[in-house]
Structures are given as C-alpha cells and as structure tokens.
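STRUCTURE:
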C-alpha cells in the first residue's frame, strides 16, 4: 500500500459553510468525479448520508474516506460535554473506516460570520482558555485512540488557533502521542504569509494534510475590502494546487523526506458555478502527477 493517499474534499462540489452552494451536486456525482479523476478518496461532507450508504457508494468505486471535520466546543461546553460529542464523532469515523478526526475549536470562531473581517477580527484566548483547550484535546486523543483514530488539529483562519505562533503553543502544550497536526497550506499562508515554517517546525506531528492553493491577487483584494471568510472564498481567494500561486513542491518534498504516511487532501472552497469541480479535480490531479510525482498527466482511472 502506498505511504501517501491522495484525496479531494467535497468542498469544491458543495460547501458546508454555505449549504446553498452546489446544492445540485449529490454524493454519487462527487464520488464518481473524484474516482474518475484518479483520487483515492475524500473527507465526509455535511450532506453525506449514514455510514451504510457511504460505505456502499465508496466500495463500488474503490475509494475510501480519509476523515471528517469536527466542530469542537471545549470552551463553550466544557471538556466533559465536548468529549461526549467527540466520542460519537469517532464512532461514525470508525464505521466509515476513516483514520483521522479533523478537529477545530469553534468557540469564538468568526469563520461563518457575515460581518467580521477575517483578516483582522479573530478572537485571542487567555491563559486559562488555552489550558482548557489543550487539556480537552488531550482527552479527545485518548478517546480517539480507543477507536484506532488520530486527532488531527486544524489551524484555521478566524478561529482561536490560526497563526503559527498559536499553533506552536498548541503543539507545545498537548501530548504528541494524543494530538497530531493537520497542516493546511492555504490557511497558514493567508494567516502568516509563510507556509513552510509551520511544516518544518512540526513535521513529526503532522498526521493529515490539506493542499489548499491561494490566488494572491484575490487574497490581496479580499484583504483590502476587509471581507469575511465566506466573502473571501467567494471572491476566489482559494483554489486547487496548479491553479494558484503556492508552490507545493517543497511541501511534498519535506513530507516525503520525513517519511510521511497518510492522506494529502486537495481542498479548495470555490463556487462550483464559477469553477467546475470536475475540471478543478483534473487540474489538481494533473499538477500532482506531473509536478510532484513526475509521472504522465491526466490519466483518468478508467483508462489506466
Ligand atoms: O478543512 C477545512 C474544512 C472547512 O469546513 C473549512 O471551512 C475550510 O476552510 C477548511 O480548511
Ligand atoms: Co482545511
């Protein structure tokens, strides 16, 4: 089995943050598109059905499920209540054979706000809140381990853990055996303007990866206009690797040289009406094949 599996997230077809986007794209369409483009699987989206139906549809296409986002509320609900919700999440992940839980602390997030400037308005935790979040994440790690699942903490724009400094603090104050890092190129680039330092400093903690590309002109425009998170991605700030301005070669090289074993999931929230998701999947796969893996481009799986 290959050390690295390549996935593409449902977010280009349908977006959990704005459910009206791509409402016409169903599960079968998403799965067939990504299988045909040559990807190994995907993450669970908010519109997915229960485990039995997911498993039936993935098995038919020989694809698999990498993980699922978990909106964590350790600060709002306390560790005990948040952990109960997380345990249910792990049960679902186990039922669909997913190896990682993508965790983001969502208390105080502005990522779904329709007015907050995503570039300036995020909340900063105090020391007591930091301690609570880190203790809660360690508890998540203990729960996940019972199900053979890893916690992949997702640093994310507009949340309490966004910047490299904040991610450093989270990594320093959680148990490496219990809490891993989800490294997302797009989020750390937009946050800090540097996407390699975070990876270099925490390579050994990385258990899951999101390849999100950035269109720098649209990012600058969104910043200048003080847009919200949703406003920024609707303004075209994110795209798939091969279509934006980030260079994924050093990222892939660092992961490979460090013996990374796990999923790399292409993840670009865009309006599917403006950016055809199947075309975007092919663009990303061609880039991965030719620029990262050094193999011929664009072999659809049924032609391989
Ligand atoms: O991993 C992610 C999940 C999405 O729901 C989120 O909004 C997106 O930006 C992301 O990186
Ligand atoms: Co992500």
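SEQUENCE:
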């Amino acid at each position: 089995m290959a050390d690295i599996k390549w996935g593409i997230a449902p977010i280009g077809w349908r977006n959990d943050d704005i459910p009206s986007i791509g409402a016409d794209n169903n599960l079968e369409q998403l799965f067939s598109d990504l299988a045909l483009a040559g990807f190994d699987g995907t993450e669970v989206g908010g519109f997915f059905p229960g485990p039995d139906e997911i498993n039936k549809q993935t098995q038919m296409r020989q694809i698999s499920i990498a993980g699922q986002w978990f909106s964590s509320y350790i600060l709002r609900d306390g560790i005990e209540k948040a952990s109960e919700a997380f345990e249910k999440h792990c049960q679902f992940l186990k039922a669909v054979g997913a190896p990682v839980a993508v965790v983001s602390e969502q208390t105080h997030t502005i990522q779904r706000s329709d007015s907050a400037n995503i570039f300036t308005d995020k909340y900063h935790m105090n020391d007591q809140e930091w301690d609570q979040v880190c203790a809660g994440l360690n508890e998540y790690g203990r729960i996940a381990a019972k199900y053979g699942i890893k916690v992949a903490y997702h640093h994310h724009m507009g949340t309490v853990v966004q910047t490299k400094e904040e991610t450093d603090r989270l990594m320093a104050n959680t148990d490496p055996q219990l809490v891993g890092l989800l490294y997302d190129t797009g989020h750390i680039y937009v946050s800090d303007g540097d996407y390699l330092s975070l990876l270099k400093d925490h390579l050994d903690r990385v258990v899951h990866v999101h390849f999100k590309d950035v269109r720098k002109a649209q990012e600058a425009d969104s910043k200048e206009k003080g847009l919200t998170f949703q406003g920024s991605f609707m303004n075209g700030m994110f795209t798939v690797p091969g279509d934006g301005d980030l260079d994924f070669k050093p990222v892939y090289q660092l992961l490979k040289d460090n013996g990374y074993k796990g999923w790399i999931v292409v993840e670009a929230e865009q309006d599917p009406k403006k950016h055809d998701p199947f075309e975007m999947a092919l663009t990303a796969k061609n880039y991965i094949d030719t620029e990262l893996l050094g193999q011929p481009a664009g072999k659809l799986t049924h032609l391989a």
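REMARK: The chain has one domain: 4-303.
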